[in-house]
Amino acid sequence: MYTGFIKLVLITTCCIFLLGCGTIDEAISVAPLEVETELILETQSNKNSIFSKLQENNHLPVEKIIVLYYELKKEHLNEYNFENEQELNRFGYALLGEGKIKSAIEIFKLLVSEFPNSANPYDSLGEAYLKDGNEELALINYEKSIQINPKNNHAIDQVTVLKGLELLITDWGKEFFHFPLHFAEEIPYRGVEEVVFPRNWIKPDSVDYWSYVFVWALDNKQAVTAKELETNLKLYFDGLIGGLSRVDTTKLIESTIQFQRSIDPKDSVTFTGELNIFDGFATQKPLTLNARIYSSYCKERNQLILLFRFSPLAFDQPIWDKLRTVKVRSNVCEK
Fold first, then answer.
1. Per-residue pLDDT tens digits for 283-302
2. Is 0.85 surpassed by the pTM of this model?
């Protein structure tokens, strides 16, 4: 995963959560701190750029470029910026950009050997293998990246797709999270969350405003109570909103949530409820969401599937017909 200047600019200008991007986790200030640190190190270093040196020799076969790298490290260790992993990472992505996928793989393998305890090199190598069509090695490296950094949501997304674990049928934007959630670690579940949302869901003047869907596939769980939902969704939204770097803490309120069991013949709804939360993304004001939650148990996987649909609009409004188009895959319980 390229975590250089362009990515940092995108994270900054998309205004910390969907005001110009379209994904949930881009808003939560976790990974950007690591990126900024790397960039500061690079900017403040007075050493020569090893990226630039390798790029100057880009015409050579990759085997000779790697030999050159080791020669420079042996003979000019203090002259080049070998301690910054982004130097090799940038060169690997430069090769990918030129369509030199095999060469990029070799550079990312070098990167992994130089920085074996960092998550990003494995992520980058996984991406290169994926571009080369080698899903098996891509999966191995993405999983290694997650092992080192459980908050690497890019790798989590890729693993979810490669393992065929997508739960929802939709063409909306989507993200994946693994329990324990990094913004709400107190929720005592194991499993996966898939979140989907229409593009304009965070725009206050849109009919899609705060109308979205997510599903939890919870391991080793068969049922849930209304009280349990209330407790864990409070942890969820308080953690989500509280983790935003630009939230106005002087206005921030704790969530209040209430659910009741309710069977709707049209939807077979398991629970309906109301959530009073804080919109720390767009308006910096309190917000009331209506919710419908559908529960089913997958005996084959020993998983509880919870489908959540949210909107500030009343249940009789057309937005709920749109939310109903997002469905759980029929084969979700297959092993």
1. 999 999 999 999 999 999 89
2. no
CA-CA distance, 287 to 240, in Å (whole number)?
14
Which two structure tokens, joined as six digits, stand for 183?
Answer: 């913004």
Tokens of 49: 């750029």
**Tens digits of per-residue pLDDT, 276-285?**
999 999 999 9
Rounded to whole angstroms, how far apart are CA atoms 158 and 26? 16
User: Nearest Cα to 273, choosing from 258, 254, 287, 288?
Assistant: 258
Question: How many whole angstroms separate alpha carbon 139 and alpha carbon 170?
Answer: 24
Helix (H) or strand (E) holding 103: helix 101-114
Taking the CA atoms of 50, 55, 60 and 63 in sequence, report the sign of the dihedral they define. positive
Percentage above 70 pLDDT, the chain: 84
Q: Is residue 161 very low, low, confident or very high in pLDDT (cuts 50, 70, 90)?
A: confident
- 37 and 77 in a common domain: yes
> Residues 223, 207: one domain?
yes
Q: Are residues 196 and 96 part of one domain?
A: no
Q: Report the C-alpha gap between 142 and 73 in whole angstroms.
A: 28
Tokens of 285: 């004001």
- Asked if the structure places residue 63 within a domain, the reply is yes
**What pLDDT was estimated at residue 20?**
42
335 within domain boundaries: no
- What pLDDT does 151 receive? 80
For the chain, counts of helices (H) and of strands (E): 11, 9
Nearest 5°: the CA angle 190, 276, 194 is 30
Domain that holds residue 254: 168-328
The CA distance from 26 to 230, in Å, is 26
Say whether both 130 and 177 belong to one domain. Answer: no
Q: 3-class DSSP state for residue 243?
A: coil
**Based on the structure, what is the number of domains in the chain?**
2
